[in-house]
Specification:
Blueprint lengths: L2 H22 L3 H5 L2 E8 L6 E3 H12 L4 E14 L2 E16 L2 E18 L2 E19 L15 H10 L1
Parallel strand pairs: 1-6
Antiparallel strand pairs: 1-2, 3-4, 4-5, 5-6
Length: 166
């Protein structure tokens, strides 16, 4: 493995992490940035298959119905071959919605299988296949949602990153 491969892996890892941020902050613009303009996403038969930009919009329509979400990237295997790469990334997601006075907590375990490429000095996804391995839901009588963690660009992290870039 070369130093260029290590740098590429880190750049790709940042692409993958931006996706989770886009989901938890319900931020389409960040979500769009993970795909090339002609990138596609496939979430399985009868769920979603189409352009990456439309996938982000479709997911965030659902995410806006949640009162909280928390995505975590765990194992991620990334292989690089020049300006092309493949990755398999495990995800655990906690999705919380309110239904008839109850809190429903859905815990999802799945994998993102991505083909990526570097174009114009930028790594992004060409195709993403999501496979849900399993999930469960449970009703919770009460839950505390952090008030200082808005699911918007009003989250404090946006100001911290903006300050760094200025």
């Amino acid at each position: 493995m070369t130093l260029d491969d290590v740098i590429a892996q880190q750049e790709i890892r940042n692409v993958l992490l931006r996706y989770f941020r886009a989901m938890d902050r319900v931020d389409n613009e960040i979500g769009y940035s993970i795909f090339h303009d002609d990138g596609v996403g496939d979430y399985g038969p009868g769920i979603f298959s189409g352009p990456g930009r439309e996938l982000i919009e479709w997911l965030n329509v659902y995410n806006r119905t949640l009162i909280a979400s928390h995505h975590q990237m765990s194992n991620s295997m990334i292989e690089v071959n020049g300006d092309r790469a493949a990755s398999e990334t495990y995800v655990n997601a906690t999705l919380i919605r309110q239904e008839a006075g109850d809190y429903i907590v859905r815990i999802v375990y799945g994998r993102y299988i991505d083909k990526l490429s570097k174009r114009d000095r930028r790594w992004a996804i060409d195709s993403r296949f999501y496979r849900r391995d399993f999930f469960y839901e449970q009703k919770v009588a009460d839950i505390t949602i952090g008030e200082s963690s808005p699911r918007t660009a009003g989250d404090p992290s946006y100001a911290v990153f903006a300050e760094l870039r200025s």
